[in-house]
User: Which sequence fits this backbone?
């Protein structure tokens, strides 16, 4: 039962406690999570599951799959991380964030079965999501892998299908030093006899070998499925009948969404026998998918603000490519902050020649790179006009003081950075609908 000292806690109090509960903030193991799920009777869960891994593109694929299955008439749960503004974003049902009271009840129920077992913050979040989906009776849950795959908390569930959006160098201290090692960790979400979709055009041999070893139904982009661009914002499946109408791109991101959308369609086709989806629902789901802070543009007082959670070199390269397709701005200012364990030089270098002035800060007091370190790195890269700010809100304020109509401000880096920046600009408030989609989905 819930310890009396924890009964009646608010969501904020629960989250603060969870931060201190487990001795390791990142503990790459599954035994404790599996034990708790078994005590909650969630092994297996009473709904279909899809896990989504990848260095980049995970959020995009989750958003599209969530929307597709909702438009097909299913009740859909989604678990994502991290959040931009508030924890509730991590646990969604039919596109709506879980309420504070519901999450508190979940934590209380989990606490009641823990015994001497401890869970990390992320593990507690994942278990809470899986429990919530069972309590509200979803038909299918889309689970975003937090890190890697093989030992991620989401992998405690034997998913009905798995998707790897991309494989690149990130989190080397936990996943390994190269793409082969990292690919093997991500391939750990595959299951025997179940669809395993890979949207990376050059997958490491470790991914292909592991799929063959366990007998997963591997499908590779470029070999088993692919896309063919059709017009400015459409595409066709390479193996679809020629008379099929083109499919749309989602209303976020850039050209990288072709591969992500094609991979999502491959997942849908692979599960068609257990989760049928009409083609019009597939199209409507992709077209109406919602995701914030992926090449998101907003005009404020004649100034274009662009937000992107690019925080590793691969994502930075995509952002750079997307920026290059926009009309040139007279001046571009950048607001940046990211975690200290990232390849910061690889993230910043592509933009040095295009940015007029930099405002760098620290978005996370524990893991964030100090602004002085960022400033020194930018100076080494040859950047001009680099200033530091004590926090994201101050950096945004300094940028606003420098821009003129026609200028552009690029805000990028960690989720903490973009979330705090949009809040400082009045684009989000937990007590207002500004951070939520403008309208509910409409089923086809």
Assistant:
């Amino acid at each position: 039962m819930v310890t009396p000292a924890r009964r009646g806690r608010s969501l904020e109090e629960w989250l603060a406690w969870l931060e201190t509960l487990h001795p390791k903030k990142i503990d790459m193991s599954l035994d404790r999570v599996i034990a708790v799920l078994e005590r909650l009777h969630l092994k297996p869960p009473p709904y279909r599951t899809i896990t989504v891994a990848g260095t980049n593109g995970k959020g995009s694929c989750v958003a599209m799959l969530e929307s597709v299955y909702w438009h097909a008439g299913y009740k859909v749960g989604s678990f994502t991380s991290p959040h931009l503004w508030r924890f509730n974003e991590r646990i969604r049902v039919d596109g709506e964030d879980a309420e504070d009271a519901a999450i508190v009840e979940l934590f209380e129920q989990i606490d009641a079965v823990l015994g001497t077992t401890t869970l990390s913050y992320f593990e507690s979040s994942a278990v809470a999501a899986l429990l919530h989906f069972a309590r509200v009776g979803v038909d299918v849950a889309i689970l975003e892998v937090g890190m890697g795959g093989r030992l991620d908390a989401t992998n405690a569930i034997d998913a009905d299908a798995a998707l790897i959006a991309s494989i690149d160098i990130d989190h080397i201290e936990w996943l390994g030093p190269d793409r082969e090692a990292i690919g093997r960790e991500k391939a750990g979400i595959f299951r025997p006899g179940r669809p395993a979709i890979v949207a990376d055009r050059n997958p490491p041999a470790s991914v292909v070998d592991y799929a063959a070893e366990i007998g997963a139904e591997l499908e590779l982009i470029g070999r088993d499925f692919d896309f063919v661009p059709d017009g400015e914002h459409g595409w066709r499946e390479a193996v679809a009948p020629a008379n099929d109408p083109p499919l749309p791109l989602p209303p976020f991101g850039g050209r990288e969404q072709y591969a992500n959308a094609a991979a999502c369609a491959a997942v849908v086709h692979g599960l068609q026998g257990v989760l049928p989806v009409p083609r019009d629902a597939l199209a409507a789901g992709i077209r109406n998918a919602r995701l914030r802070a992926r090449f998101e543009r907003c005009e404020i007082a004649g100034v274009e603000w662009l937000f992107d959670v690019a925080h590793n070199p691969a994502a930075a390269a995509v952002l750079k490519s997307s920026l290059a397709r926009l009309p040139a701005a007279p001046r571009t200012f950048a607001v940046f902050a990211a975690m200290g364990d990232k390849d910061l030089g690889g993230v910043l270098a592509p933009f040095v020649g295009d940015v007029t002035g930099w405002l760098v800060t620290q978005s996370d007091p524990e893991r964030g790179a100090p602004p002085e370190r960022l400033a020194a790195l930018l100076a080494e890269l040859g950047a001009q006009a680099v200033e530091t700010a004590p926090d994201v809100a101050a950096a945004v304020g300094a940028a606003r003081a420098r821009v003129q109509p026609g200028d552009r401000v690029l805000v990028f880096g960690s989720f903490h950075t973009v979330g705090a920046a949009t809040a400082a600009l009045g684009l989000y408030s937990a007590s207002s609908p500004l951070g939520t989609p403008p309208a509910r989905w409409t089923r086809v």
